[in-house]
């Protein structure tokens, strides 16, 4: 069991992430995206999940978290986009728009996508999406409508997925979350 903090970015699935982690027998707590680094560290988490949300403008301190916390972090949808932008990538309005089923092609199963490939069906919103992979990140998955469906930092335990592993419409969503929890279990901070 690991302790996970879910950062609430005011998305409609934030509580589903919390419940999915709890249902997978993890210790989990919700925190506002305006929480300070110190408030997060006081909780002694093993990892962070940045939830989806309506807009980058309401992502609070998420870009600070991904740059300054030495913890495994999984960005989901908006969290994925915040991570990309914080590290020099780009986000644009997607051509496919709102929530829909999409087939993902996994390029590299590294860490969080282990056992999910070579293809999987997911539930995702492409109202906004990562359009330019940040330097020092590896693209892990793409689809016919988006080139950066999933990514990982080359050296830090930072992961982003455009889709929602916490919803029942996503195949193997629990497997992705469990893969992330295993990363959290084995990660040792560099300091």
From TrEMBL:
Q: What is its EC number?
A: 6.3.5.2
> A GO CC term?
cytosol
Molecular function in Gene Ontology? ATP binding; GMP synthase activity
In terms of InterPro entries, this protein maps to: Class_I_gatase-like (IPR029062), GATASE (IPR017926), GMP_synth_GATase (IPR004739), GMP_synthase_A (IPR023686)
Q: Tell me the Pfam families matching this sequence.
A: GATase
Q: In which pathway does it act?
A: Purine metabolism; GMP biosynthesis; GMP from XMP (L-Gln route): step 1/1
Q: What does this protein do?
A: Catalyzes the synthesis of GMP from XMP.
The protein's name: GMP synthase [glutamine-hydrolyzing] subunit A
Output the lineage of the source organism. Archaea, Methanobacteriati, Methanobacteriota, Stenosarchaea group, Methanomicrobia
Gene encoding the protein = guaA_1
């Amino acid at each position: 069991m690991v302790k996970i903090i879910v950062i609430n970015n005011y998305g409609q699935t934030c509580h589903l992430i919390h419940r999915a982690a709890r249902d997978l027998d993890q210790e989990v707590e919700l925190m506002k995206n305006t929480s300070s680094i110190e408030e997060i560290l006081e909780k002694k988490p093993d990892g962070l999940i940045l939830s989806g949300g309506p807009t980058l403008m309401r992502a609070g301190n998420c870009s600070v978290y991904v740059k300054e916390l030495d913890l495994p972090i999984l960005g989901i949808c908006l969290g994925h986009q915040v991570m990309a932008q914080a590290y020099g990538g780009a986000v644009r309005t997607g051509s496919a728009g709102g929530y829909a089923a999409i087939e993902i092609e996994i390029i590299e199963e590294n860490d969080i996508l282990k056992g999910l490939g070579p293809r999987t069906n997911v539930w995702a919103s492409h109202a906004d999406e990562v359009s330019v992979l940040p330097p020092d990140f590896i693209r892990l998955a793409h689809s016919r409508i988006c080139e950066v469906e999933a990514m990982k930092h080359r050296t830090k335990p930072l992961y982003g997925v455009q889709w929602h592993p916490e919803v029942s419409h996503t195949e193997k969503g629990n497997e992705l979350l469990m893969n992330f929890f295993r990363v959290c279990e084995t990660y040792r901070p560099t300091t």
